[in-house]
Amino acid sequence: MVRVEVPAGSGHPKSTHPGSGQELGRTLLSAWCDHWESQRDRPVLIDGADATTHLNGGLMLRATAEAAASLAAHGVAPGDRVLWSCGASLRTIGGLLGAMRLGAVVVPVSPSSTRSELTYIIGDARPSAAMVERDEQEEWISSVDGEVTVVRADGRGEADHMDAGPTLDRALPGDDALIVYTSGTTGKAKGAVHTHRSLLAGVHALRLAWEWGPEDRLILALPLFHVHGLCAGLFGTLTAGASAVVFTRFLEDQVLDAVPGSTMFFGVPTMYHRLAETGRAGELSALRLCVSGSAPLAADLWKRLNDDGVPVLERYGMTETLLTLSNPLIGERRPGSVGVPLPGVEAAIEGTDQEGVGELVVRGPSVCRGYWDRPDATRDMFADGWFATGDLVSVDADGYVSIRGRTTELIISGGHNVYPAEVEAILARHPSVAEVAVVGVPSAEWGESVVAFVVGAGGDPDVAALRALAAEELAPFKRPREFNVRGALPRNAMGKVVRRALQE
Ligand code: MLC
Ligand code: AMP
């Protein structure tokens, strides 16, 4: 297939390739620990709800070492998977980082995962321990697999009983560090496996492109079970030797109140929409950098914020690749475009049509090593080291890339991916349903909202029962907001449901 290269990122610093020079001798963990050692008294993570509470470098070293010791006392060994199903807080982050310092492989999942979602991931990832916050999750996990040790979310509590803590920070660059689950068209989630090396490469590219340094303070109100909040937000902060104000939930007034003293904010478009609605968005102009990603930032929202003095920088990424394209820090930030390749990233377009639109493929050191336990899927998706993103893009003459569509059905609501096939498979199980199609309909706030079209089996479908089924089986962001009853679904000559007709 013809592959058209996207020109290497003009506008980003070119000289330093991620993984080159000084960085080669460092691992992700040594970068973090060196910063904490040299900043023992300086705040690293600040509690967004109570700014007087923080972890300085000394406390980061201690909290993470204690969490690692606790996990080791529970029998967790390097290479073991540790499920982490928590909201973002100083406590829970200590547990997550402690697991990484022990050499365990962290599997982050939404704290609002349902029983069946957790059951699937436990069966696939086979963790030896789980860190949770909700009592019901503890019960579910124990009933699904009694071998999984469930520990407190901060991972602490056992260290006092130990004579000596475990050996820390021994993970090598090629060792697995993180498995992040991401759904596919089949609706079965696959775990993208990132190594310490791919995570370091991912954050190093952002440090260079966005000139992220120790003086920066990030307002971090993203969930930490996606790569946006975890790998860009948290790991970026720690690797740059910077600091972050951490919020468990995104509340627009709290985020705006954290602007004084901060320098950066990362958000999904739904967050920017809500910030703009407060009438206070202009306060963000005191930050040196506001970044949007994970879903398309509407050009009119970009303009509204820009008119308020907030020139949002849009970038693009994926669970499998981390962040790969970005508008430049210095130079034109083009509305409707996700920018140019980040340092170290190669991007190309395959199978272009007469308008120059084709599938984006990317290659580089931040791309994950493959899917957990899925050699076939890994082979399909990573041909010659090029990862097929499934996003249809075009490129301007000066190298700026724009997302034009998807090769597969995908709804992005509030920055969360929702795969129609997963939702359809669950609703179709109900006896009152003959056929079902799930589509995304445009929403100014959410980007897209999940809507179901249902054909009854021998009578009307039982919508109340379908809502209850969705609530039982699907995390909140995947549940249909509306159910529309139809006599039949629109189909094309091939018998395929015409989703566009339903969206109109
Ligand atoms: C969800 N809700 C909706 C809805 N979607 N209601 C109407 N229409 C919709 N489309 C409901 C939920 O079911 C829930 O209901 C309530 O709203 C809260 O859901 P939520 O999604 O948690 O929303 P909220 O708490 O309001 O927070 C909004 C948000 C959040 C934007 C802060 O969705 C969020 O943090 N999104 C970020 C996702 C993210 O990090 N993506 C990165 C992916 S990584 P109820 O009844 O339960 O209250 C990636 C790679 C990359 O993509 O490039 O970054
Ligand atoms: P995920 O699989 O959750 O990592 O989501 C990755 C997907 O989010 C990409 O394949 C894109 O479809 C989408 N995405 C990420 N950033 C952007 C962006 N800036 N604009 C449009 N879509 C985006």
List keywords for this structure.
504 residues; alpha/beta; Rossmann fold; GMP Synthetase, Chain A, domain 3; 2 domains; binds malonyl-coenzyme A; binds adenosine monophosphate
Description:
With 504 residues, the chain is an alpha/beta fold. The protein folds into 2 domains: 399 residues, Rossmann fold, CATH 3.40.50.12780; 95 residues, GMP Synthetase, Chain A, domain 3 (2-Layer Sandwich). The protein has 14 helices and 26 strands. The strands form 6 sheets. The protein has a 9-stranded mixed β-sheet. Strands 1-17-18-20-21 form a 5-stranded antiparallel β-sheet, with no helix packed on it. A 4-stranded parallel β-sheet has the order 5-4-6-7, with helices on both faces. Helix 1 crosses helix 2, helix 4 crosses helix 5 and helix 6 packs across helix 7. Bound molecules: malonyl-coenzyme A and adenosine monophosphate (AMP). The site of malonyl-coenzyme A (MLC) has 27 residues, from helix 7, helix 9 and strand 14. The site of adenosine monophosphate (AMP) has 16 residues, from strand 14 and strand 20.
Number of domains: 2
Largest sheet: 9 strands, mixed
CATH architectural arrangement of the largest domain:
3-Layer(aba) Sandwich
Helix content: 25-40%
DSSP strand count: 26
What is the topological layout?
Elements: E1 3-6, H1 28-38, E2 43-47, E3 54-56, H2 57-73, E4 81-85, H3 90-102, E5 105-108, H4 115-125, E6 129-132, H5 135-144, E7 149-152, E8 176-182, E9 190-195, H6 196-210, E10 217-220, H7 227-239, E11 243-246, H8 252-257, E12 264-267, H9 269-277, E13 289-292, H10 299-307, E14 313-318, E15 322-326, E16 340-341, E17 346-350, E18 358-363, E19 370-371, H11 375-381, E20 387-395, E21 401-406, E22 411-413, E23 416-418, H12 420-428, E24 433-443, E25 447-456, H13 463-473, E26 482-486, H14 499-503
Parallel strand pairs: 2-11, 4-5, 4-6, 6-7, 10-11, 10-12, 12-13, 13-14, 25-26
Antiparallel strand pairs: 1-17, 2-3, 8-9, 9-19, 14-15, 15-16, 17-18, 18-20, 20-21, 22-23, 24-25
Helix pairs in contact: 1-2, 2-3, 4-5, 6-7
Adenosine monophosphate (AMP) is lined by residues 182, 293-296, 314, 316-319, 338, 389-391, 403, 417.
